[in-house]
Amino acid sequence: MAIGLAVAITAPAFAADVTFVMRNEHPNAVEVELYSQDRDYVWPGDNQVFYLDDGETKQIPLSCEEGESICYGAWISGDKQTYWGVGPENAETCEDCCYTCTGGETEEINLTE
Asked: What is the CATH number of the domain that holds 85?
């Protein structure tokens, strides 16, 4: 009599990098967070935000898992009611605010009035 042993093999998560290029064209400073849609992860994390002054363009490099979907949420500093993308806390839905982690960089994302 043979006894079968099933072994679960988990595929390793391959790391990749993507750079979000964000431009603040709003007259006020904005705060940005980037949210994984595939796991419980936020960049920059630890209750921090990426901060963009009015007129500033910032390149935000991330290490992420290959194929992971990442969406941006941005809002006016001090006013979470005015937002772009998925907004604060990844709470809203959006069109065209998510990118797949495959390396390279996004096109310039313009946050305008």
From this structure: 2.60.40
